[in-house]
Every structure is written in C-alpha cells, then in structure tokens.
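anyone seen this seq b4? input:
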Amino acid sequence: MNVGQKCQRFVNDQIYDPDMDLSMKNFCSQFIPDEARHGDMLVCGEKDLRSMNIFFLNGESRNLVQKDPTGSGYTCVPLEITRKIPDPIEFYNGAFNFKNYEEIDFYGIEIDPLAHNNLIKSLTNGRSAAGHKILYYFFDENEWEQGRGVFIYNEQEDKFFKLNSSIEQKYLD
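predicted toks r here
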C-alpha cells in the first residue's frame, strides 16, 4: 500500500444532488484521482467542510471513508485510515488549513494505541494505553478540549484527558 509523506487534498467541484439515486459517498467515489494514496483527502463540492463533504481514501480498497463520532457533522480521520499511517499527526499536519470555506468542523485524528504505541509511550513516560482505547489528536482548541495534543476519552467522567507523563494510569487502562 502506498502512503505518502503528507496528506494530499483533492477538491471535487461537482455538486451532489441528493435527489439522485446515488449516495454522496458513491457520487464522490467517481472522482478519486489516480494519484491519490492511502489517507489522502477528497473534498466534495460544498463550501462548508462538515463530515458529509470530506472523505479519506483507503488505499487498499480504493474506497472512500468518513467518520463523525459526534453525530453533529464534525469530520474525524478514522482509525481505519490512521492505523496504516506511521505518523498520522505529521501526515495530516496542515491538511485542515482551508481558505475560502465558510465553515470547517474538524473533530480530530483517531490514534490507535497499538499501531502508534511508540507515540503513546513518548507522551506518557514509557506507558502504553489499553488496546481498546481510542485516542484523538486535536490540532487546536475546540469545544471538547483546550489546546493541541493527544487526548484519551474517559467514559465514566465524560471527559478527555491529555496524554502526558503525569496522566493517571486509570485513564490509560
């Protein structure tokens, strides 16, 4: 599978007509450029960048993937994509800097604690996160957390905790 050093962004200016007998995903799949690689982004036609307009290419299947873990239209790079990218934070650094768009709702990048164990250990003083945990990298302040970094969600407290050397082990387990 071919993964580049940085995410390429491809924009399809074709406007999707919801009255067509074709899903948005299938409509946009018609416009995947030949040079697109695993993890690259395809933006489909609209002037706001919500989850329904941004897709990521699965390089193995050549399918488009999208995810909104909030249910509110926020774009997230899913594990299906990031677990096959050695350094997803660097790969997507700068990819979400859009100009001339009315609204950009970006949630984060999902980080796999097993595939990206070295990253987790570098942030937590050599400790790992449990394999069932999903971590998120936030590029900047958002309505969930302040600042950028890798965060782990704790369901019991309904809160994100930033990974650092002093994070309590109970949040990693």
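The chain has two domains: 1-107, 112-173. The chain has a mean pLDDT of 83. kinda curious what u guys think
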